[in-house]
Amino acid sequence: MDHQVHPIIEQYRALLxxxxxxxxxxxxxLRAFFDEAGIVVASLEHRVKTEGSLAGKLELKGDKYKxxxxxTDIVGLRVITFYIDDVDKVATVxxxxxxxxxxxxxxxxxxxxxxxxxxxxLHYICRIPQTTFHDPAHPEVNQxxxxxxxxxxxQHAWANMNHDTGYKSxxxxxxxxxxxxxxxxxxxxxxxxxxxxxxxxxxxxxxxVQNLVRSGRLEDVSLDGDSFRSYLAIGPFDALNRRIAAVNxxxxxxxxxxxxxxxxxxxxxxxxxxxxxxxxxYSDAAYQIACFQIGLTDIDIISSTIGPQxxxxxxxxxxxxxxxxxxxxxxxxxGPGEGNDSMAQFLLEQAQDLPFMNQ
Length: 359
Description:
Layout: H1 5-37, E1 41-48, H2 51-61, E2 75-81, H3 84-97, E3 99-100, E4 106-107, E5 122-127, E6 146-152, H4 153-165, H5 175-215, H6 225-232, H7 238-245, E7 251-253, H8 260-266, H9 272-294, E8 301-303, H10 306-318, H11 322-334, H12 339-351
Parallel strand pairs: 2-6, 7-8
Antiparallel strand pairs: 1-2, 3-5, 4-5, 5-6
Helix pairs in contact: 1-2, 1-3, 5-6, 8-11, 9-10, 10-11, 11-12
């Protein structure tokens, strides 16, 4: 072993417990900050460089290092995000939590040559400030620098593919393969950008839907999962449910109403305005059905699904859907089953003599 290498290896051995402590502490602090900031990451990896790996590095670049504190990647972390714009959010958290050595950090994304085909990430060299973590028994924790790599899932996949293909091994690769790798890198970069663009547009769409729902312009809002969730948030069936509950002075048990989306779509509704019109035009009929169902019982707890279900029953029957329409509703709510047919017949017979059927 080289005379310059040996002292650094001895330092490594002496400080190994500190390195391992850092490898546990840093991810713990990062996860806490990510949770606080609402940042969801695909994975957070960490490792301590092995003695063998360090020895190999020192054999190649030993002249570069005077002691262990000159080496910045003995402790390394990799944060992998789902979206490319989350890389910058992660970087902001790292900047707030740690001291960044800007002189030795590098944003390789900004030095990506137009004719190169490496897929690049953001690398920070950091220290743990005493305000974040301090161990009096091991003050070196606040001296040792460590590396944080930040990249997307696709960037990570590209880096792994590069490694597997031997691109960085120094072996010359035929031009045709280099060209294909370059094309693939371009495709992955476009996909990364498109994922982020779509997420941004979906967020804009959700905000627009929420504003339209709050303003009451429901006829302008297409019926889909996002818009229906926003609609349910304003409690469109609450008044009817309270009216029904008053029949028996019953308590209302909140149950999920999202499954009614498929029912409304199955009966032909296209916008939230269609549901709103049904509530305005068929609430009295739904109330009649509910009174027949529970009026002569001692039921004192009802499900919040009773309002929308009885609205659908009234609407289907008044629109001429009959037994088949009721069976479709039950299939959507409960899943297809033989019992749905007999239940549809029972509901049909229940409603035949109610006033709304003869109006």
